[in-house]
Amino acid sequence: MQVTGMLTGARLLAHVDFPTSDVLGPDATEDQIQALIDRHGVIFVKPLFRGGVGKKGKAGLIGRADDLKTALAEKERLYFAEHRHGNALAKANGVTFEAGIPAEHEVYFAITDDTRFRAPTMTITHRGGVDIEELGKSEIVSVPFDALTGLKAFVVANALTSLGAPKEIISPLVQHLPKLWELMHHYGMTTLELNPIRMMPGGNGRLTPIACDFKCGFDRDDPRVGRLGLPDYLFAADISVFEQEVNQLRTHQGQSDVFVINDKGTILAPTFGGGANSLVTEVLGDAAIISSDFGGNPPYEKMKAVASICYRHFLKQTNVLFIIGGKSNNTDILETFRGMGDALREHFAKHGPVPLYVVVGRGGPNLVRGMGNLADTLDSLGVPYRFFGFDSAISEVVAYAKRVDQWMRSGGRDEIARAMNINA
Amino acid sequence: MYRQGIAGLPYYLGIDRLDQIATPEDRVCVLNILGGESRTVTPVSHAFSGGNVVFGTSPGRSGQVLKTPAGDIPVFNSVLEGLKAGHRFNTGVVYLPPSGVRDGVAELIRVNPDLRKIVIITEKIAVHDAREIRAMAQANGIDIVGGNCLGVADSWSRVRVGGALGGDHPEESLLKGSVAVFSNSGGFTTTIAQYMATAGWGTTTLISSGKDVYIQYGARDFAHGFANDPRSRAAVLYVEPGGYYEKEINWSKPVVACVVGRWKSKLTRAVGHAGAMAGSGDSAEDKERWFIEAFGTDGVFSAETPHASAKGALVTNIADIPAALTAVMALNDMQPDFPPRGSLALKPWIANDQGLHLPPDVALPIVTAPAPYAGQITALSDQIGAVIARQGMKDKSGASVMDPKTQVTSVHGHTVLDLALQPLNAMFALPLVHELADAHDRALLDIAVSAEVNLVGDPILVATDAARDAGNAPNAIMAVAAAITGPRRVERALACAQALVELFAKSGLRDGRDDAFDISTISVDDETRKLFLATQGEADDPRPEAMLAAIAARGGRSVFLRLLQSFGERLSRDAILAAITTTIAWGPMVRKRISRLTAETLPWYLRLYGVMVGATIPKEHHQSGSLWGIPRSERFQNWTMADLCCLAMTGKQPGPTEALYIQILIGLLISNGPGAISAQGAKGAVAADGPQTPERVQINKAMIGFLTHSGYSHGGNGFEGMAFLLDQFRGCALTDPTDPAHGLDLKAMARKFALSYKEEKRHAKELGQEVRALPGVHHPIFKGKPENFDPRERFIARFMEERSEYNIFHDFYRHLVRELFEVGASPYVFCVNIDAIIAALLLAVLWKDYQSGALSPRDLETAAFTVFLFGRMIGAAAEIDDHLNRGRNMDTRTPAAACGHVL
């Protein structure tokens, strides 16, 4: 859950009265753009991405214009721009027009929870506007501060002093930056980064920090995010319908993030436990359809609902339904297996049977009762299966599921389909 | 701001050695002790630790207790209340929901000056709260483990605090040894301990750290306690991406680190905890590098590349931990703690290949599970046959379903179209075994039913004839026969079937026809044995011998019959019937396709099949030793169900083509799903008897339910199509309706009718009357296109085309729908529907006898109704069996609120 760019950023910063550059959205009229140019002389045209997308400037994705014609040409160039950063490919849908802020000084500022200090930590440099990785160690400073008292003016002042920052920027920053802690801490953010903050001279020569780019990450487990009233679509970038649907059921009682690994995969693996999830996803590779962690003792109804969603989206293409976890510590195997089995029975009844092989690797409370219940369901559906207890290495069971998938791909699926009297 | 704990550290840490994390002296208070998770976990922890929980809190539940094997744990509204009651503790365990965790921690810290440690189990705590929790704990000098963890345990002192390390049997995995475990994954903390035991390594302290942004007790803290713990000779770390917790730690003793999560960097967007921003240098690969550098190895340890040093080894799969640990320890001249326990090899506990032949590397043989699981699995396998959950079955069926788009119904996964092409005896077996019976089982079924058809000397015959004379339709006549085939008439046959199932239930027999099965392993007591033997009163019944002879003649194989025959005494017909049904049912039952209840009630269905078919044959044709002139031995040894059904309808054995079309007709009529009136009748009858007490359900009465819920509109209207065709072909010199060289101009006949029908329509419209519907033409679903088809009619048409077979009546219908359109009597080309096919096929079978005068129009009507009843008898059996197995008492009733009142 990340937000980048000034279109939303300016809105968020307004909650704590932090000054921002003027910004227009993709639906700005030519008159509005012209007026922006008239006011500021120079404007920047930036593609509008959803989610956390950085390094746009380096990728040549920031346009500069001092007349309407150039601004519109840049709009056309950048409106649907694509940006690859690592493995992530982002596609823009729209542009923003942001006022150019004349400034001598650019500041980088971020607050995040730094695991080196296990505390909220401010990172700051007066040599902002560049990749901070490129700065020397003496040019940037990270300062942890107390979460209960928050980011105080003296923390900012001390940090800037230790960096040897120009005197004229210290006072305005000390005045404004602590507000950002209020924004971060009280609205469910995990990270807040402004880069650059341009120090704009006012009529009296005093500088005002103006946020010219914005990036933040939200904590999806924090209900404080809701206070901002942000629309859901902001976070919907690249999330499949399945993910949206299934993650709505996310609570503290079971189920962490579920996401699609390969929507053409053939092993549907409801996984229990974060460790199992990592192992299974790693070893299955492209064969895995989803990566999931349904552990945490989900109650029957929830397990059934989650399984139903998984089946509805992916069972048709599935060769192996692979229910896998270590020896559960508290997740009730009977409840979870009953939920998944009943969902499968209902899915078959509603959408028709599919050729399937079920592999289970599991341990935990009510294990044999759970296995017995699932076996009864699969028997009644005519689905073949093999259940492993916790005394088989989970890694071996994962490899076994892959072997079954291979067999299914090379004729096994047809064989099961024939036995079940259905189409492969 | 932090209180200084261990000197020299820039933050508070109170735990100096690992053995201080979970000690026998620790006294514990559990917040939200009666919550769902704690309620199951805390009693195990408490008992395992010798009773270390002094009290728990649960607002509003003060005065209650949590029962545990080590005694009750008192519950208070708040921590303060518990302290005021005189309890003292130094360790808090938090099971509160996420939004309450921060306040719970504050409560523990503020009201209890003795507090030293907190273990937070709750997951999905907001980072906001976690950072404040950290700050509170640091300022007040409290060690915290978690959140999102499974707590801590000590294998030496057998103490477990918070969470469920070791699951519900901690003693199985928390084995005393020399290795400390620190894991980001709660579940894998236990799994790793189990894995290590296979190489002989036990544990000292196990810590499930959690993997939130804030890991309150981190790897660095662990490293400090590990260094000072003389019990721990080595450590195993399980590490996930995100955070710098493991960076630049100076490990004082050997360590095996398992770093997982490379896959996360391949994803196209950031995942994992919020702190793990892409490119921030804390990916799985980064962490692997930290450890490789710390250990001075050349890469990842695996079976192929055993990179290890005396300092440690890095693995990326937990399965490699035991070998890596042994290798590292060997470099330090240290041996495992105990002989290896268990193995990591694949051990399937439960499997069913559903009769498939799988490759050897997939079809791994079942392995006996360790105690106590083996006993539980054995208890499961004692449960022979499918176990089916009961539910309200009103308007629902587990046996049949109609596809609303194609209007094609399936029964136990087979469409009626496919079934129509199966031998009739396979159709009769399907409702009862839920599979298509093979030739062997079909032959046994033929014998069983043949033995019931001839009703000579049976009061049923008198009753059915009286019913026939009284002018009843065939359904009412069959109902009379079914009524007399009541529970007492099948009591012994059912008892025989139950006895056979019981005798063989634990024998390991997989196939009831297994010639190699050693029946000497089955011991039968005298009372049971007597159950199978013919009585004095049955001395004159010739059928047992005839059945045995027929079974022998048809090559029948039956383990059950072999057992009964080994008695060396005369068997009753009931015993042989039960042996046949158990033979047919055994495979599907052990494969769990059918329940034991179904297998044990099967004789009743077969007896009903025979009696109901027999009842449709007039009394005079039932003679001692012969039926309609067919000798018993021939019938038993050669006749099929199709022959019997045809005999009942036409009085003679059909030729192969006739039998085929009777079979197709019956197949098409098996079921229209649970919504059909006939199915509702059968289901209502089961519901009324109460399927939850299955032994009280009268299966014969359920058959009557279906029969009373069929009639001239539902079942008898097949005759309307025939009557329509007879009208059209009246006076035609048609001798063989299956000969395409019939010499008739069907197009002209169809056009003539179409024109008259158009006129009739126009006339009716003028008078404001309803236009009569044409039987066999049009369908409420298959309509509206320029040319329309009923897929069921197309299926049969294609089948006939493939066999180069011809049916003039069907051909006429095809012309008719076209001509109706051509002359403007229909807005588009109507479909020829399934009723037309039924009428056409049946009339073709009966045409010659009708032409010769052997059959009257009334006989044709009876035949049309009877063929429906034969088909639906199969479908009804499927619904009855299904409702008996799945339904609840009186579940077909409609609530009063859903009923209407009209005036």
From TrEMBL, chain A:
Record-linked InterPro entries: ATP-grasp_succ-CoA_synth-type, Citrate-bd, Succinyl-CoA_synth-like
Keywords in alphabetical order: Acyltransferase, Ligase, Nucleotide-binding, Transferase, Tricarboxylic acid cycle
Residue span(s) of domain ATP-grasp fold succinyl-CoA synthetase-type: 53-197
Domain ATP-citrate synthase citrate-binding intervals: 243-401
Catalysed reactions, semicolon-separated: oxaloacetate + acetyl-CoA + ADP + phosphate = citrate + ATP + CoA
UniProt key word Nucleotide-binding: yes
A Pfam family reported for this protein in Swiss-Prot or TrEMBL: Citrate_bind
Signal sequence, start to end: none
Top-level division of the source organism's lineage: Bacteria
Entries under PANTHER family matching the protein: SUCCINATE--COA LIGASE [GDP-FORMING] SUBUNIT BETA, MITOCHONDRIAL, SUCCINYL-COA SYNTHETASE BETA CHAIN
Protein name, as recorded: ATP citrate synthase
Species the sequence originates in: Rhodobacter flavimaris
UniProtKB/TrEMBL annotation, chain B:
Keywords: Tricarboxylic acid cycle
Keyword RNA-binding: no
Keyword Nucleus: no
UniProt superkingdom: Bacteria
Stretches assigned to the CoA-binding domain: 50-123
SUPFAM superfamilies found in the cross-reference section: Citrate synthase, NAD(P)-binding Rossmann-fold domains, Succinyl-CoA synthetase domains
Domain Succinyl-CoA synthetase-like flavodoxin intervals: 176-282
Protein name: CoA-binding protein
Lineage: Bacteria, Pseudomonadati, Pseudomonadota, Alphaproteobacteria, Rhodobacterales
